[in-house]
Amino acid sequence: MEKIKLEILGLSSSQSQSGSFALVLGEKPGKRRLPIIIGMFEAQAIAIEIEKIIPNRPMTHDLFKSFAGSFNFMIREIIISDLKEGVFFAKIICENEERTIEIDSRPSDAIAIGLRFDAPIYTYETILGEAGIEMSEEEEEEPDIQKELEQIQPQKELKTPSSEKLKDVSMEKLKEMLEKAIEKEDYERAAKIRDELNKRN
Questions:
Q1: Could you tell me if 12 and 106 lie in one domain?
Q2: CATH code at 123?
Q3: Concatenated DSSP letters for 107-149?
Q4: Do residue 139 and residue 170 come from a single domain?
Q5: Straight-line distance from the first to the last Cα atom of the chain, in angstroms, rounded to the nearest whole number
């Protein structure tokens, strides 16, 4: 079966399921979109890797990468392989010098792991034809993952400084704030501080 390459277009809050997120994949090239509903933890794991935020301790998907690397396995590709009764299935294609193996996975976990290996994502025409949504040119605005970080991990007691206030903070203080935000796993705050540091570099 011929594979169709997908790219991650973004994350958006699920309108149908509270606490869930829609991971939006796009046909490459093409105008069809494949939205997959995923949980908050998996959405966070995907967003953190896309935003290149390094947590102070390895997350589950980082641990998988370290484990695979220890046994000289690499991820060749991720395949959204099946759709049954509205549930997506995926395969992680792993390989080393001697063999290639397929591991059954939820798409959200597979993609979170695949991102950490820079592995391409594929699906089949049967799946894209059944569950894909064709976008018109007017509708092609991509969801902003940066904006979704706030919804993925809301902090009850920590107030995130606004961009205006961050502009007044010294570089040294910003770096200190970034370390503290990562320690507390406040990734929304970390992303904003990191962006401000990048602007000054």
A1: yes
A2: 3.10.690.10
A3: HHHHHHHHHHTT--EEEEHHHHHHH-EEPPGGG-PPP-HHHHH
A4: no
A5: 47
> Tell me, what's the pLDDT at 153?
44
Q: Where are the alpha helices (DSSP H) in 132-170?
A: 145-152, 163-166
Is 0.85 surpassed by the pTM of this model?
Answer: no
Count of domains for the chain = 2
64: amino acid identity, one letter: F
Please give the Cα distance from 20 to 35 (Å, whole number).
12
pLDDT digits over 42-86, tens only? 988 998 898 888 888 888 899 999 999 898 999 999 999 999 888
Residue 27 shares a structural domain with residue 121: yes
Q: What is the DSSP string of 45-98?
A: HHHHHHTT---SS--HHHHHHHHHHHTT-EEEEEEEEEEETTEEEEEEEEE-SS
Which residues have C-beta within 8 Å of that of residue 157, sequence separation ≥ 6? none
Please tell me what DSSP assigns to residue 137: G
Asked if residue 129 and residue 91 are part of one domain, the reply reads: yes
Parent domain of 118: 3-145
Query: 139 burial class (0-12, 13-18, 19+ CB within 10 angstroms)?
Result: exposed
Tell whether 42 and 111 lie within a shared domain: yes
Which phi-psi region, left, alpha or beta, contains residue 166 (left: φ > 0; alpha: ψ -120 to 50)? alpha
Beta bridge partners of 1: none
CA-nearest of 32, 41, 54, 31 to 11 is 41
